[in-house]
Structure prediction request, 459 residues.
Amino acid sequence: MPQATTQSKYTTVSIPVTLHDRIEKMIIKKSGFKSVSDYVTYVLREVVAMHETKDVPEPFTSTDVEEIKARLKALGYL
Amino acid sequence: MSLSPHGGRLISVGTFVSSPEKSKELAENSTVNVSNETRVQMFNISTGILSPLTGFIGKADYENVLDNMRLSDDTPWTIPILLHVPESFSAGGGDEITLVDDLGKAVGVLEFEELFSISKKEYAKKVFGTEDGAHPGVAKTMASSDRVVAGKLKSVIRFDKGNFENFTLSPKETRVLFKEKGWKDVIAFQTRNAPHIGHEYVQKTGLAFADGIFINPVLGRKKSGDFTDEVILDTYQVLVKNYYPKNSVVLSVLHYEMQYAGPKEAIMHAIMRKNFGCTHIAIGRDHAGVGSYYGPYAAHEIFKEFPDLGIQAVFFREFFYCNKCAGIANEKICPHPESDRLTFSGTKLRKMFLSGETPPKEFMRPEVSQIILKSKTPFIE
Prediction:
């Protein structure tokens, strides 16, 4: 379980020390990230967003679609 | 399946029709007068343009947006959407608030959640990056109340789009439209100007890789010297008709009041276009900037902070006409000195039009220039 710190704005998760060291070496060489935490946060946000947006259903029903198409046709968009 | 709306769901708020019975019913609630800008925000919340917001944000979201550029659930968000109320306003949990326009007509119903105070100086510093009262966004912030109400919009009255009803599409409509056209990659182009050749070049460069372009001019209060809404729409219509392949463009307006918050506003522009179903957005030089408050490419840099934004920004350097290249170029591809370049300066254009002069065709399409020259009031005074 993650442990909450500093008014619950940040929490701690465990990663292997070897991975931490690898990331640390990499970010020293390549600028852009201030810390391992910044890097991990960036990567996780990217990955999580990818999973969250997979196979998202259309935000409208088939009835909506027919009504919308009729308006779009009337306006000359279709 | 489609591109996910921001925050995972497209918001839709019901509308109500103004009637004596409804007015009587709503008269029992406490009321808040709302500005035209707030009405526009209500419209944008109700149609899902500002998804995942369901209303005006609360304190936790507000603080997180200012400090971390994210809502409290970690969704990227850079400018708070607030409902300012007078100092004397009070309400209790679960109360309904009737939102009324300048004439006292009910335009929306809000479910009260929270009343809190903000520091306007902190807001100015964190959103606009300056406390300078000469910045139009800062000036507006400092003139507003520091008390704000958070709550969910329960219903809104139908928003009057004036002459632009037929060019106003909701995110649901654009999503259906893109699908019907068979477009998968759609690049959005945000503008508050009549198009010159530089704009056209950016749009067509985007169109070279995308299936279609969504040209989405901003209509609403802007600053003095900007083109009027009518001129912007008329000039785009003539440009698309004469210079774009059929079925490659959707031209629809965005009702929205510019904040001139530069990079932070660029992120909001991207979020709104993601909700319309766009996969990409063109970001040019000094996007949403004003004066010299932001670096020319600050709006490019900020996108690096958001790997989870869900819409891809496509960055463009400034285009110009190069006499030696004999065509449109930018600093990345043109080796010639500035003396060979004709830059697309808005100030220069304005001066030419105000003196009745037609800009050279290397600067602006003649059909576009003619519309501006024929307009009695092409610029906001």
Chain A touches chain B at residues 32, 42-43, 45-46, 48-49, 52-53, 55-60, 64-65, 68-69, 71-72, 75, 77-78 (CB under 8 Å). The CA atoms of residues 24 and 36 of chain A lie 6 Å apart.
